[in-house]
Specification:
This protein is an alpha/beta fold and 429 residues long. It is 35% helix and 22% strand. The strands form four sheets. The protein has a nine-stranded mixed beta sheet with strand order 9-10-8-7-6-5-4-1-11, sandwiched between helices. A four-stranded antiparallel beta sheet has the order 12-13-14-18. The protein has a three-stranded antiparallel beta sheet with strand order 15-17-16. A hairpin with a 3-residue loop joins strand 16 (393-395) and strand 17 (399-402). Helix 2 crosses helix 11 (325-333) and helix 4 (147-156) packs parallel to helix 6 (182-196). The longest helix has 17 residues, at 253-269. 45% of the residues are buried. The protein binds S-adenosylmethionine and iron/sulfur cluster.
Length: 429
């Protein structure tokens, strides 16, 4: 998943199963952050590249991603040209920096032809120094599966495929309005594994009318393929979706809690590490691109609606590209791909770092805060002490990690870092 979606389910899954709140935080004296100036980086964070392809065969009723029905052919040549122009516009802000991973997300990037993805990756390599060992992921929908095309993606340099399976159960695929059936999901899963080896399946649970037994059997089908990586998302009703307007009959809280317990237990027994809120991997198969987001690395996002976070010697900048594909194409042609740009305020940086880092089961090294934000850890000392006093984090001189309680109450834990602060300064373009 891209940065657009990385924070989809902050702790929502675990919240459902519990009916009490953690104890209140004590007040702790701390230093004055106003004594600090701007950030100071000894070295810039690793840089990843996100590329957004915004078209799908059909809009799914639960989906709030920046995705649009293609209604005929997606204008792939014009769009790839615009991506190159967008990348060239961004080059001065990433000058000389190596790109450690690429994620082609959407939407449904697998709607594009293999030739278009080949041109895209060749054009990226010609413009930025891509590490030879870079992870290059492409998101694919089983409804777009053709063996020859997927083999073409592999030949173009895609070395990790993320397959949006959602469910193998025909009844639930229909309820989710998916364009593919269970047979197509199985065929795509099999072919993806034989062509790429490094594969993720996206699955969702707590589906309309889903029982615990159905969720177990669904995950059982997925595990029979033994994918190196699984992302298991709690289906959420997002504003501005058909499901939000016409809510389907979702399982009750108790059933959802039982489904979650069953999912965690099955994945653990099968040997997957639960390394992030929704992500499970075999050892060494964690998604490097997403880990970079969660460790507060830098990313340049190109394409319609893509988000970027870029560090400079004395500031951290966030950018958002124009969201509507047509508007994006026009604005890129006019040399103005950005819809919004702003410097991350000192008062926001602790929250932004923790929003990501606390999703990781093993947490982060204590030194990472200063490395990635450019500020000393003392900036969030009071919040850390409050989180520790409530039993939501554990820390020592070496690392900071969420406790089991902290993972269960992730939203509450992250909110502790939301200090009273002025809003991030943004410039609308
Ligand atoms: C951009 S889509 C990935 C690929 C492709 N578009 C597809 O759907 O096959 C990213 C993933 O987010 C998850 N997702 C989307 N909407 C969701 C929602 N409302 N609740 C939970 N997960 C959701 C789905 O698992 C989906 O595969
Ligand atoms: S195919 Fe994927 S991105 Fe497209 S609408 Fe469905 S869930 Fe969203």
């Amino acid at each position: 998943m891209g940065p657009l979606s990385g924070n989809r389910d902050q702790g929502k899954g675990s919240m459902a199963s519990v009916d009490h709140h953690p104890p209140p935080a004590p007040v702790v004296a701390t230093f004055d952050p106003a004594s600090l100036g701007g950030p100071r980086f000894a070295a810039l964070p690793p840089l990843a590249l996100y590329v957004h392809l915004p078209w799908c065969l059909k809009k799914c009723p639960y989906c709030d991603f920046n995705s649009h029905e293609a209604r005929g052919e997606a204008p792939e040549d014009a769009y790839v040209d615009a991506l190159f122009a967008d990348l060239e516009f961004a080059l001065p802000s990433i000058w000389g920096r190596k790109v450690v991973s690429v994620f082609i997300g959407g939407g449904t990037p697998s709607l594009f032809s293999a030739a278009a993805i080949d041109r895209l990756l060749a054009g990226i390599r010609a413009r930025v120094p891509l590490s030879p060992e870079a992870e290059v992921t492409l998101e694919a929908n089983p409804g777009t599966f053709e063996r020859e095309k997927f083999a073409g993606f592999r030949a173009a340099g895609v070395n990790r495929l993320s397959l949006g399976i959602q469910s193998f159960d025909p009844k639930h695929l229909i309820a989710l309005g998916r364009v593919h059936d269970a047979d197509e999901a199985r065929r795509a899963a099999e072919a993806a594994l034989s062509l790429f080896g490094n594969v993720n399946f996206d699955l969702m649970y707590a589906l309309p009318r889903q029982t615990v037994a159905e969720a177990e059997s669904d995950l059982g089908v997925a595990l029979a393929f033994s994918p190196p990586h699984l992302s298991c998302y709690h289906l959420t009703l997002e504003p501005n979706t058909l499901f939000h307007r016409y809510p389907p009959p979702l399982p009750d809280e108790e059933t959802v809690a039982d489904i979650e317990d069953a999912v965690h237990a099955m994945l653990e027994v099968a040997g997957y590490g639960h390394y992030e809120t929704s992500a499970y991997a075999r050892p060494g198969r964690e998604c490097r691109h997403n880990l970079n987001y969660w460790r507060f690395g830098d990313y340049l996002g190109i394409g319609a609606g893509a988000h970027s976070k870029l560090s400079f010697a004395d500031r951290i900048v966030r950018q958002v590209r124009h969201k509507q594909p047509k508007q994006y194409l026009e604005q890129v042609a006019a040399g103005m791909p950005l819809q919004e740009e702003g410097v991350v305020a000192r008062s926001d940086v602790g929250f932004e770092f923790m929003l990501n880092a606390l999703r990781l089961t093993e947490g982060v090294p204590a030194t990472l805060f200063a490395e990635r934000t450019g500020y000393p850890l003392a900036l969030v000392q009071r919040e850390l002490a409050a989180a520790e006093a409530r039993g939501l984090i554990e820390r020592d001189p070496v690392s900071i990690r969420p406790t089991e309680l902290g993972r269960r109450f992730l939203n509450d834990l992250q909110a502790l870092f939301l200090a009273e602060r002025p809003a991030t300064q943004r410039t609308r373009r």
